[in-house]
Amino acid sequence: MAATVRRQRPRRLACWALMTVLLADLLALSDTLAVMSVDLGSESMKVAIVKPGVPMEIVLNKESRRKTPVTVTLKENERFFGDSAASMAIKNPKATLRYFQHLLGKQENNPHVALYKARFPEHELGFDPQRQTVYFQISPQLQFSPEEVLSMLLNYSRSLAEDFAEQPIKDAVITVPAFFNQAERRAVLQAARMAGLKVLQLINDNTATALSYGVFRRKDINSTAQNIMFYDMGSGSTVCTIVTYQTVKTKDAGIQPQLQIRGVGFDRTLGGLEMELRLREHLARLFNEQRKGQRAKDVRENPRAMAKLLREANRLKTVLSANADHMAQIEGLMDDVDFKAKVTRAEFEELCADLFERVPGPVQQALQSAEMKLDEIEQVILVGGATRVPKVQEVLLKAVGKEELGKNINADEAAAMGAVYQAAALSKAFKVKPFVVRDAVIYPILVEFTREVEEETGVRSLKHNKRVLFSRMGPYPQRKVITFNRYSHDFNFHINYGDLGFLGPEDLRVFGSQNLTTVKLKGVGESFKKYPDYESKGIKAHFNLDESGVLSLDRVESVFETLVEDSPEEESTLTKLGNTISSLFGGGSTPDTKENGTDTVQEEEEGPAEGSKDEPGEQAELKEEAEAPAEDTSSPPPPEAKGAAAPEGEKAAEKDGGDKPEAQKPVVCRTLLSRFGF
């Protein structure tokens, strides 16, 4: 009996230990239900959270303010963030970093790097030869990349959210400008990883604003399309977006409201910061004129004095938005000399006259990309702090031809609220009312490759081909598969941006390289040797443009097919089980392919400027898919001579002829290929 007790005791202890672990996991899960959003602006950021009992709340910082300056001060042993760092900007301007998001994903020769140096000469920028990017040289021993500085700020934003929620938070949705390209988006993701955040999605700030507007007006959305224009002028840039709201029938949730991004226009450098810099320069000129003849130094050579002037210019711009004139005054600006000068709104508008002329530009770009006219726009809504400048509203109202501009949205917090709603929708801990979001691709992406072709004279030549993967203003997230039909050996292909003709010459220089990457495939020839008796179905490359707008190449595989005798009466139990599992997980061809969102399109060559038409049998297959399938979901054509692809006409003839024996079924073999460069 004693022996029996000794045998059971470890089992009881193990059961208690297992229950303790499960209880601890449940408690830990209940403590991490909160999610957050970070609306990362150029000048300030807004943090919002959702947790049980607290639906969509803006986080207050340590100074009990709803927005926090995007400012970081770095010393040898200290770091300051937000308002604390902003107050250090005058004492230690070199170590206080602001507007560093403008350097994300930028190489040293980018015009925005030169612009940053001109705007903030107190900062010393070094060059990283390995990454071909710049970094901040705070001291000989202290240097940080823009991504590292951003990661510190994101970590600080998380600490604010955790203090407000009184529980740990890891999941976040972060807003980014709609015009961010792949390099800039990846830089933000890298910063979030360094901060220990799990990014549920990088959401475009214009999309987040549109979502916030739609969520709070859900009852007003019906089957009739409503076209709303959002004009967002912030501190660093301006984005104009055309959004269509209407109810649609979804597969899982029935009829639900949907927003679709129809058109986007932007100006990367038009914003409140440029206005403040113009005012700062004006105040510096006035101060130098007041001290003329006193052999005084130029105030522009004093970083502390220029930091004081920039702060006063910011205040002056805000006050002049509501007053016709105001007195700028700074105590002890330089050399214990006080500064006082009157500035009128007319002078301010004259200083920024060329900036106001650029206000209608994003509107025209958005209309052009949406292929719409102003008559189709029902309302124009203002977003962003710089839209409070009266001259901006005056010029914009004239450009859109409306009776008035919409101001029925919180211009500062709309993006943060929309982003946190999306965070709750993506989190498994919350259940929210569905709201379908269809974002749009700003920069088209294509695949380019070169192969040898044999002409009629028997001479072999190289032919350049282009295949558009994701077209401009096409929806995402989206998966696509492109098939290379004419390769039997290792080869390379390039992933590039498509036609960027809608960008001006300066925007193209800021955009940077149009080549995303070059993919080198290895093992193609070996796969053909491995299946010599199988028919090649091509090399299939699976691409994914995810919810964050980030492109990835999931996998590349060489696909082969052959026919085998199908004897149902002799089919083994293991084979039946394997077929059942395959059907459960989407393997093989199924009749409801279209219902699952999979579409197969024969891609044609672009116009003569892009490349000549392919001859029969050389069209690339471009397939869209809702999810990455385990196998090719398109029904394969009947086999021909092994290793050769027949022209389309022959394939159609064989299908009509029905020569395929009923007792045979295709067996597909796939070989994953090694790839380098993505």
UniProtKB/TrEMBL annotation:
InterPro entries: ATPase_NBD (IPR043129), Heat_shock_70_CS (IPR018181), HSP70_peptide-bd_sf (IPR029047), Hsp_70_fam (IPR013126). One of its GO terms (cellular component) is endoplasmic reticulum lumen. Residues 564-668 are annotated as: Disordered. Transmembrane segments: none annotated. Residues 611-626, 648-663 have a biased composition (Basic and acidic residues). GO terms for biological process: endoplasmic reticulum unfolded protein response; negative regulation of hypoxia-induced intrinsic apoptotic signaling pathway. It is found in: Endoplasmic reticulum lumen. Residues 1-34 form the signal peptide. Residues 574-583 have a biased composition (Polar residues). It holds the Pfam family HSP70. One of its GO terms (molecular function) is ATP binding. Keywords: ATP-binding, Chaperone, Endoplasmic reticulum, Nucleotide-binding, Signal. Belongs to the heat shock protein 70 family. PANTHER family: HSC70CB, ISOFORM G-RELATED (PTHR45639), HYPOXIA UP-REGULATED PROTEIN 1 (PTHR45639:SF3). This is Hypoxia up-regulated protein 1. It comes from Bos indicus x Bos taurus (Hybrid cattle).
